[in-house]
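Here is an idea for our session: we take a single protein and study its fold together. Start from the sequence, derive the backbone structure tokens from it, and show both lines together. Once you have written the record down, we can walk along the chain together:
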Amino acid sequence: MANNGVNQPGIDPKQLKKQERQKLYESLNKQKLEKKLAKIAERKKIKEEYIKQNAEISKYETKCKEDIKNKLIDFKNQIANHQISKKDAKKQFKVYRKERIGQFRQDEQRILNLSSEQLRQSFSFRLRRWFFGVGKEFSRVTWIRGHQILRDFGIILILVTIMALIFLGLDYVINIIPRG
């Protein structure tokens, strides 16, 4: 028969259980700490990605603004050299500016989609976003008061009665007219 140490002389069973509980608590606390550190690391990673994403977007925005300024200077030089009329230059510049801003928006959206895809992979992020959405929708709910329900019910009852009287009157008039 195997002896697990409970009945050995010199070892108190209560002390042994206390030691086991302490080991269990220590292991649970260690697991909690590891989870907490993992969450902190995940948040830090997301924050770093967000900062990178914003830096990349601002870099694209600066480049877009510089391109537009350079193109404006180019058009002004063409006007000064009489290569193009002022009216045509304005039209072409508007078209270029619109295209360049559209291109910037596409690049910005591409960057945002990449980072949002990375964020979507995290289950905890999706769960938090779902609860946030539920809370937001719940805050938009407006509850009708009792007197409003009674008032609306009364209006509906009056309208149904009026419509019933109109149809009964029409039915009576149609039945009075002799059929020819």
Notes: Residues 13-80 form the longest helix (68 residues).
